[in-house]
Amino acid sequence: MRLNYGKTFLLGFGFFGVSVVWGVYNAFVPIFLSNKFGLAPSIIGLFMTLDNIAALFIQPPVGAWSDRLRTPLGRRIPFIVAGAPITAVAFGLIPLAAVLPLFVACTSTMLLSAALWRTPVVALMPDITPSEFRSQANGIINFMGGVGTIIALQTGGILYKLSPNFPFWMGSALVLFAALVVYLFIEEPRDYQQGETQPGMLASLREVINDADKSGLRILLAIFFWFLGFSAVETFFTLYAKNHLGLNEGDGATLLSILPLFFVLFAIPSGYLAGRIGRRTTITIGLVTLIVMLVLLYITPASALLTGIAPLPLVGIPLEEGGTRMLTLAGVLLTLGGIGWACININSLPMIVDLTNAARLGTFTGLYYLFSTLSAIVGPNVNGWAIQLTGNNYNIIMVLSPIFMALALWFMLGVKRGEAVTQ
Predict the structure, then answer these.
(1) pLDDT exceeds 80 at position 50
(2) Following DSSP, what letter does each residue of 30-72 receive, concatenated?
(3) For residue range 361-391, what is the model confidence (pLDDT) as tens digits?
(4) Which DSSP category does 360 fall into?
(5) 420 lies in some domain
(6) pTM recorded for the entire structure
(7) Which residues make beta-bridge pairs with 318?
(8) What value, to the nearest 5°, has the Cα angle with vertex 227 and ends 275 and 126?
(9) What was the pLDDT predicted at 195?
(10) Total tally of structural domains belonging to the chain
(11) Pairing mode, strands 308-311 and 325-328
């Protein structure tokens, strides 16, 4: 038995589409809220959690629903076919909204429709992949997702300078393309029983909480805390780059694109690394790496972070008007962050789904999103208030984030299950 690379890469287009949308959303919606509508950092933080609040109530139940759904298209594909076109249209309208209520209407429609199909498209990976290859397959899928994030930040940063509308329109087009690829080329397995009934999401959560060794609960809590740290940095990085480092919005997004670039480059190797040394050990290495990166970003002066190291096309930033694009010290640290985040993110979902059987993969994928979404709600709010209470000191997020990562590390050290099962 071996991994089907072709099918896995094609499935990766689904996550590619999701990542383009959220990359553009997280990079540029805070800029719209600050520059166009004049909102304070705490209000921006609250606004950036509205999508996660909606997702909290949609993604986990949809995952469980998709386990029970039986249609000629399968269990997961119907959600993609229904949700992706609505997402594309609403996303393209966001930059055209001239008043805040219309802006909220567009973003709300986009986030509700995106939440409808995100869990099913991710659950397709364990559906079509045996346990022993899920870290490797998730590496490939996240490679595709990372490519989507890079396009969102790198190409989006360039397009934003031409027009703030263009990154969103690019995202809409790529979402439609990605959904079409999954619809045309991915065939779901049909080996589940037609009449079977499975515990719902809440029953499955109680099962995880009451489990004797608490491995499932510890993994879920670790996921909560590392996303708490990471989502806060991701949400405020363009404003951090503008206010702390003195970069413009486009160059801030370009600088941030170094992290997903190295996430992409290390996504597949991290899956294979977990296959050799174990998922928990690989995640632990990633958490330590991120903690070191964040602490160094905090203690290093802004002027030193913008020290040029070497010329770097595309993802480098010009240190003077019209100058050569350079890899900076901040870029080097974000390189480490990308590698560390790959070690964590590639192997966490496989650990969760290997706590259950094939019939409940959507439900446990929903549990993964329940805890990651909760953290995405709390993170921007905590950090938004921290920024505001420290006199708009955007560097404060580099203090709180490693604390959350350290808590995640503590929980992971007690995990005993979730490794690959050889079939």
Answers:
(1) no
(2) HHIIIIIT---HHHHHHHHHHHHHHHHHHHHHHHHHHHH---T
(3) 878 888 888 898 888 778 777 888 888 888 8
(4) G
(5) no
(6) 0.79
(7) 325
(8) 40
(9) 46
(10) 1
(11) antiparallel
Q: Give the domain CATH number at 406.
A: 1.20.1250.20
Structure tokens given for 133: 């290859």
Q: Would you say residue 240 lies in a domain?
A: yes
Cα gap 398→20, rounded to integer Å = 25
Q: Check: CB of residue 14 under 8 Å from CB of residue 121.
A: yes
Q: Are 174 and 100 in contact (CB under 8 A)?
A: no
Do residues 270 and 139 make contact, with C-beta atoms less than 8 angstroms apart? yes
Q: How far apart are CA 389 and CA 168, in angstroms?
A: 32
Select from 158, 155, 340 the least CA-distant residue to 233.
340
What's the domain range around 24? Answer: 5-187+200-412
Tokens 């119907």 found at? 78
Q: Which residues of 353-376 are buried (b: 16+ CB within 10 A; e: fewer)?
A: bbbbeeebbbbbbbbbbbbbbbbb
* Beta-strand runs (E) in 110-161: none
Quickly state the pLDDT bin for 422 (edges 50, 70, 90).
low
Burial (CB count <10 Å: 0-12, 13-18, 19+), residue 213 = exposed
Establish if 404 belongs to a structural domain.
yes
**Helix or strand or coil: residue 93?**
helix
Q: What is the pLDDT of residues 327-372, one digit of tens each?
A: 889 889 999 999 999 999 999 989 988 887 777 787 888 888 889 8
Q: CA end-to-end span of the chain, whole Å?
A: 9
Q: For the chain, how many helices (H) and strands (E)?
A: 16, 3
pLDDT tens sequence across 212-256: 788 889 999 999 999 988 877 877 888 888 888 888 877 887 888
Residue 157 near residue 254 (C-beta atoms within 8 A): yes
| Chain segment 267-307, per-residue pLDDT in tens | 999 998 998 899 999 999 999 999 999 999 999 988 888 88
- Residue 400: CB atoms within 10 A of its CB come to 20
- Does the residue 192 lie in any domain? no
Element (H, E) at 305: helix 302-305
Question: 266 and 338 in contact (C-beta within 8 Å)?
Answer: yes
